[in-house]
Specification:
heterodimer, A: 293 residues, 13 helices, 8 strands, B: 214 residues, alpha/beta, Rossmann fold, seven-stranded mixed β-sheet, three-stranded mixed β-sheet, 5 helices, 12 strands, 22% helix, globular
């Protein structure tokens, strides 16, 4: 990827700022999401909560399904490739989708390497739990970052943890003298050049969205107030009792995240949210956020 | 003062450009924020998302009224879609400039591109242009002036009150369009501010979106 292409890819993510990206599994859901005001859709066969209950190996979705969704909507379409599965990414690039999510929600294909995203023209978004992970992905060519959260749980606690961790680490980097940066970068697995860039900018150099466990308008506004640039909602919309209404409400709360009255308005009469899962009730080996290195 | 519609999209990029030009700018999130503005920028983003939010909070009618009062409006990319009187395959939103526009007309993100063009009315120097999943203006009605025609489409057009560009001047180190629009709003008259800023970088937007340290 040349510099100009990378710049254009980061800039597409900039256009998504303040918006909601929604998981959809078919054309009908994609249209509901678009109509509700989603800024992009993530096309996948099973939302994370189903992947969680059904188990088995989760792979890239059927390209036929992704192509149908791509034809049905005019908003950008994203799709997931397994961590390290650069051929799934090649296939998605050949399909001309708009963004690839190298995602821990799918079963990793490589337990050591992520995809070398600099080899692609298509943009990638990657998950991160902390600053080091975010900056390693950026160094590998990611044009957008999202928190990992714990997908498919309807529990926002992990997304909050990941965002707070990134913010704390950015503040630490900003406040330390230069001579401490080398050691800090080493301990936290941060590429040194990237650490310097963050010190200069006071934030990640690319757009950072919240993802993993968001289920309500208040969850979305919470993540925005913590400093996220926008939000992903996966299972939270189409596993709720009234997806269209909830989708519109989350769009509204994300745009007006500092306005409690509007968040209140958005939170009324939404019906049931998706059922939630306590993180401690999930066996350690079934946690998704730990995938990725 | 110029307002930037702050519902979704690349708001801070426009704010950064206006600030570098020395134009006072304000975020517009509510109809009351339109008060006392000379101009309003509707930024890039997703037009369906923007249109839905505009309607829910009745900012759309407030913008149409502001336009009647003489507030100038500039739409970039999604903003241009919202301003058009006709959109291919869907119904129009604000309908403030007589033109037909087609959403996401180039294809996918892989078809996003940068170009350079000469637009004599806006700048004596060539202007860098950034197209991100851009729309195409297919045709314009009588009374609409074409500022830039490219291949099979129109990329920029204006009337006395409205400016529409399918590309994103706020993503480049060139302030010609922000200067042009400010002058259209009656601001920056007679002054000749910088056309580019050597300190501008593609990451300059982050200046207005830093992690809070307080």
């Amino acid at each position: 990827m040349d510099t100009k292409r990378y710049e254009l890819n980061v800039q597409l993510a900039q256009m998504l700022k303040g918006g909601v990206i929604m998981d959809v599994t078919n054309v009908e859901q994609a249209k509901i999401a678009e109509d509700a005001g989603a800024v992009a859709v993530m096309a996948l066969e099973r939302v994370p909560s189903d992947i969680r209950t059904q188990g088995g190996v989760a792979r890239m979705s059927d390209p036929t399904m992704i192509a149908e969704i791509k034809r049905a909507v005019s908003v950008p379409v994203m799709a997931k490739a397994r961590i390290g599965h650069f051929v799934e990414a090649q296939v998605l690039e050949a399909m001309n989708i708009d963004y690839i999510d190298e995602s821990e929600v799918l079963t990793p294909a490589d337990e050591e390497c992520h995809i070398d995203k600099t080899k692609f023209s298509i943009p990638f978004v990657c998950g991160a739990r902390n600053l080091g992970e975010a900056l390693r992905r950026i160094a590998e060519g990611a044009a957008m970052i999202r928190t990992k959260g714990e997908a498919g749980t309807g529990n926002v606690v992990e997304a909050v943890r990941h965002m707070r961790t990134m913010n704390r680490e950015i503040r630490q980097l900003l406040s330390m003298p230069l001579e401490e940066v080398t050691g800090y970068a080493k301990v936290n697995g941060i590429p040194y050049e990237q650490a310097l860039k963050v010190r200069k900018l006071g934030r990640l150099p690319v757009v950072n969205f919240a993802a993993g466990g968001l289920a309500t308008p208040a969850d979305a506004a919470l993540m925005m107030q913590l400093g996220c640039d926008g939000v992903f909602v996966g299972s939270g919309i189409f596993k709720s009792s009234d997806p269209a209404r909830r989708a519109r409400a989350i769009v509204k709360a994300t745009a007006y995240f500092r306005d409690p009255l509007k968040i209140l308005e958005a939170s009324m009469d939404l019906g049931e949210a998706m059922p939630g899962l306590e993180i401690s009730a999930i066996p350690e080996n079934q946690l998704l956020a730990g995938r990725g290195w | 003062m110029i307002g930037v519609l702050d519902l979704q999209g690349d708001v801070v990029e426009h704010l950064d450009h206006l600030e570098r030009l020395g134009v006072v700018a304000r975020r517009v999130k509510d109809p009351s924020h339109l008060h006392n503005l000379k101009g309003l920028i509707i930024p890039g983003g997703e037009s369906t998302c923007l249109s839905r939010l505009l309607r829910i909070f009745e900012i759309d009618t407030a913008i149409m009224e502001a336009c009647k009062r003489g507030v100038k409006i500039w739409g970039t990319c999604a903003g241009a879609i919202l301003l058009a009187t006709q959109i291919v395959g869907e119904k129009a939103y604000l309908g403030l400039i007589d033109m037909e526009i087609e959403r996401n007309s180039f294809g996918s993100q892989l078809d996003s591109f940068a170009a350079v063009a000469s637009i004599p009315k806006v700048s004596s120097e060539p202007v860098p242009l950034t197209f991100i999943r851009a729309p195409k203006i297919r045709s314009v009605g009588p009374g609409v002036e074409i500022l830039l025609r490219m291949d099979d489409y129109i990329a920029a057009a204006e009337t006395e009150g409205i400016l529409a560009t399918v590309f994103h001047p706020e993503l480049t180190n060139n302030f010609a369009f922000h200067r042009y629009f400010s002058r259209k709003c009656g601001l920056l008259a007679g002054e000749s501010p910088l056309l580019a800023d050597p300190t501008w970088k593609p990451t300059s937007w982050t200046r207005l979106a830093r992690i809070s340290t307080g």
